[in-house]
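Amino acid chain:
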Amino acid sequence: MWAYTLATLRNARRSPLTWVLLGLGTFFGWFATTLAVLALDEAGTQALPLTLSTAHLAGVFLTLWLVGRGLDEDRTSGFAAAADVTVGGPQGRVAGRWLGAVLAGTALACAVGLLIGTTSKHPSPPLIHLLSTSSLTTALVGAWGMLLGTLWRGGGATLAAFILWVLGHLPWGAAPFLEGLAGRALGAWLPGPRVADATVALGYTSAAVAGLLLIALALSRPADA
């Protein structure tokens, strides 16, 4: 497991996409908060949600890309085929890929959020707030990517998980989006904005991540090579 976690983190560090997302996320966040182009109200009241949403989007992109790329590489890798017959098996490989992608996505989201604050006239969100919300966000979207990646190839799984991310931004539980308990439950399972200081939201998200990962691990199969 840990070998795949470290390999995924190395892929993130060496990939040009990581640095492109860091630059683009910082630029668009600065543009939105400084010039208030995307704000519907006073820029000062919109700075925090704009910064968080931009940072999370960068982290989500990187997390899903790492999950899809890692699983695709493993399908035809001789090393993965050999490692899958060891103690950890394919379940350890899948868990390691997920953990590495989540750590990389969380780190990128925090970096983007802090850089937006240092380059704009608005202060950065507190690091603990960035870290907690980014961890919840990338953990859930990574779990969806991992589950879908065990069923489909990386490109299709990544696209499907991103569509779920978009759907997760809808106000589930309120009319007309499946009003009531069923809608709130669906909103808790769909990847999207997470509320770090709400114990209920944290519990729902943790349960969703654990459930999705357990299903993904149960469906994981040895590499093809």
